[in-house]
Amino acid sequence: FNLRTRPTNLPPSPPSLPIIGHLHYIKIPLHRTLHKLSAKYGPLISLRFGSRLVVVVSSLPAVEECFTKNDIVLANRPRLLFGKHIGYNHTTMVGSPYGDHWRNLRRIGAIEIFSASRLNKFAGTRKDEVERLLKKLSRNSMHGYSKVEMQSSISELTFNISMRMAAGKRYFGDEVRDVEEARQSRELIKQIVSMGGVSNPGDFIPMMNWVPNGYKRKVSRLGKRMDRFLQGLIDEHRSNKEEERNTMIDHLLSLQETEPEYYGDEIIKGIVLVLLLAGTDTSAVTIEWALAHLLNNPEVLKKAREELDNQIGEKQLAEELDVSKLPYLQGIIYETLRLNPAAPMLVPHLTSNNCTISEYEIPRDTIVLVNAWAIHRDPSQWEEPTLFKPERHQNLESSDHHQIPKMIPFGVGRRACPGSSMAQRVVGLTLATLIQCYEWERIGEEKVDMTEGRGVTMPKVVPLEAMCKARPIVHNIFN
Ligand code: HEM
């Protein structure tokens, strides 16, 4: 970090140590640690993670400046070792630098993956997976309350949905075609997810990458294994054309035949990778947190159930598109994303040029972290910010910051999440049917523990357990 080129007007900064800079402040969960620092030093702070300059943004007006006038400058991503080894040398949609390649991926994504018509093609798959979960819950709860562990059931649901959309395979539950393949792939992806985030000191202190270290070896080995797994899926589909299948891999392979320059194997592998890594845990933790809030707020659960009974009735299951008729349920989802955003610090951005934010000078190549978690709990924006109140989204007044919404769980600007509508379909359908089909209660008198654990998607530290009892609709539909 060259002091001579350091701008004089950087955002305020806490005292730092030689070489490591502010890395010693970094404790898990990161969003809470950085929130504490921002409370002391201001809504824009500058830190040094080893040799890297990092700016943390923790107020809505500053976020507005970032993603309106500075949106292009901030549309880059830092090159972390994870993206090199797992993310095909920074060429996937999440990790790619801003430029033609990224624009091309977003274009492909908007048309071929995330458009309403492509998502509709898989509505049956998502419905089938949700119904399997509902049936599984009914095993012991048809005639009385039984205890269920929801964390693993929900993450299996979202993983099966992504795998079936991508490759037509289930890796959890019944009808797993190759049990050993499923076991190995689940284990591989679990290990990869645990390596994400800003957990590698070598990303910030380059000399740590010069010596052999555990992270580098592990991430490189996992990257190779993941590539073999993804290539295996593609080859299987390529050699099995006659089998009638409607999966993303088949669709992308058919586009490869007509436009091979855009749809190389590596692009297809990158798309499947992103679907599995960015699209499963995020939705799963959102559903789990939402259910936890409902258990702690039975009056909210009651209102949601009344809304479902009035709008959908007790004879048919809610469908994905019904969620638009359920404003209170939508309020529950927004409120969960406000208090427990699955990407609490968004995804790190990188400045590709010098810029100014709140009159501070931000040099080129600065990593910018946005603390969405802190912004969603800012008392100047939200009344009683820590309370779970879905009503607040019913007549949400427009914020003073007209160019961006008051809540940013999916980010804003060019790099905002392209999978938000898929996420909203999965989360909406799952929650609607869980509420429609079951009575839910806490295991005991004590409130559900809402502490956050380790991991980039802000999981619950204690896996959610609950008591559930089938409502009459379950007898009508599944008997
Ligand atoms: C509740 C669920 C989800 C949440 C809260 C969420 C949140 C986010 C956030 C905050 C970002 C970064 C925005 C930024 O850089 O400022 C992001 C990026 C991204 N998300 Fe999501 N996401 C969710 C679900 C999904 C799903 C289901 C998919 C795909 C199937 C997906 C795919 C992506 C991709 C590809 C990017 C990178 C975009 C880019 O860099 O251009 N996400 N998401």
UniProtKB/TrEMBL annotation:
Keywords, alphabetical: Heme, Iron, Membrane, Metal-binding, Monooxygenase, Oxidoreductase, Signal, Transmembrane, Transmembrane helix
Primary localization: membrane
GO MF terms, alphabetically ordered: heme binding; iron ion binding; oxidoreductase activity, acting on paired donors, with incorporation or reduction of molecular oxygen, NAD(P)H as one donor, and incorporation of one atom of oxygen
Pfam families recorded: p450
Domain of life: Eukaryota
Annotated localization: Membrane
Amino acids binding heme: C417
Gene Ontology, cellular component aspect: membrane
Co-factor requirement: heme
Family, per entry: Belongs to the cytochrome P450 family.
Protein name per its UniProtKB record: Cytochrome P450
UniProt organism field: Cucumis sativus (Cucumber)
Lineage, broadest ranks: Eukaryota, Viridiplantae, Streptophyta, Embryophyta, Tracheophyta
